[in-house]
Please model this.
Amino acid sequence: MSDIRKRVGKNGTTYQVRYADRASKTGYAYKTFDTARAARAFREDAAARAQASSASASSMSVEQAVKEWLDICEKEGLNGRDPVTAYTLENYEYRASFIKGYAWTKELRELTAPDIAEFRSWLLRSDMSRDLAGKVLSSFQSMMKEMTVRGRIPINCAAGISVRSDSRYDEPVTIPTKSEIKALLKAADDLSNAKNQTVAKPWQRYRPMLYLAVDSGMRPQEYLAVARSSLGENGIKVERAIEGDGSRISVTKTPTGRRFIDLTDTTINMVRHYAENIAVLPPTEN
Model:
């Protein structure tokens, strides 16, 4: 709400407009004009802008916001990052189907924290797993954050509302000891050199992968997608990875995933021997 105040001072009569301003500590800002006509024009223009802005923001539904968020993920990327891969987008669309499937009774701008808590309850009481419920809510959080940054809503009322991933039933991860890893590699050596060729042939493929995993620390989706051309004199270049559904080879998940890893002579010679003598390569592989 705004009003006009007439001021009389040494320099004559002026007209001060007081109008709402969220950036101000008091919630109001002031602008002075020489004539009442100019002050009224400013007040009417400010009111029209505020009304148009409010109408535009309040008219966006949750479904429309989700659609815009998915479009941003695919074509721009969130928060300055690269656009998501086709596999990630497919996952986001799957999670979005649950968000759009909920019976939202309010427009996006009208949502409050209790509304988001009710949505979380609906997710947790449905047939989906707790892990999936957490991922759906995480995507909803991402959407709300993006809509806030782009000015679709004034505040993110979903902030702080999540599904905790930790559980009393979680078992701690047990990392193999050095002696256990040595025993694993020795078993791979023995099996790949077994007299029984039915046993030896598959282990001649598994053995280089085990050595490469142990020596490099690469993820399975990375060492399974290594190209022959990535093998160097002293190590290996990580440039690509298998996407989560296993259907295609793509780039690494992040740019920092592209790296060079030094390998021991034993591992690099074993992997090269496999690539040149055992692996079946398509005609286009280099």
